[in-house]
User: Fold Amidohydrolase family protein from Streptomyces scabichelini.
Amino acid sequence: MIVDAHHHVWDLSVRDQDWITGPELQPLRRNFTVTDLRPKTRAADVGRTVLVQTITVPEETPEFLALAAESDLIGGVVGWTDLTRPDVTDELARLAELPGGAHLRGIRHQVQGEPDPEWLLRPDVHRGLTAVAEAGLVYDLVVLPHQLSACVKAAADQSGLTFVLDHLGKPPIASGAQEPWAGAVRALAGLPNTVCKLSGMVTEADHATWTVDDLRPYADTVLEAFGPSRLMFGSDWPVCTLAATYAQVLETAVELTAGLSGSEREDVFAGTATRVYGL
Assistant:
């Protein structure tokens, strides 16, 4: 059974996804539901998924937890809460008590949108990250390459918290450049409390012309740096549909990991996510 460690859903009748701007993103301006996802996961032999926050509003996480409670597909939720709020410990406890609260596995913030490249190192954020660790949750990192150095410092300061790097840290695949991204990723991987998602690559490449060979240097870098036991597959559906179908994303990940042993592939496609998110 495959675990998809990263996907989203949204309903525009509930609230707008205000990040969907410009003509390139317009194909995402419609509803994407668990019902839409289910036939794709069934065809791909995906038995469990992790539903990940999309926008930074407090209402989204309770909604996602309720979805997980009703679904045999969603095994865990990575939600959002304001890490800087003084009562963040109480808020995390409240979320855990909501319907579906047992599915809360992690917290994520859109750090990639923060103008301060060292936002993760702010004292109030540090306090919030400590609360995440004390709640038994993990912290997903959605960051840009220039923010990776702060991720390294934060992970070193928070040795009791597992940090999950989403989308390889968004390397500039379309340009073909690897540095300074690769060096920063290796530094992050040097810390034992870090893992990485093999996700989001097709949308960092040229959407229309990407090939597996375009992605391979970046996949090889994280495979070498983190190792299969700290790497997990994620589709990033439906964002991935800008460049590939759900099936193509999975097939590409299988091709990129073809040189691994059977047990190593088991880690990437199920074991790591199951362990890290406690599915």
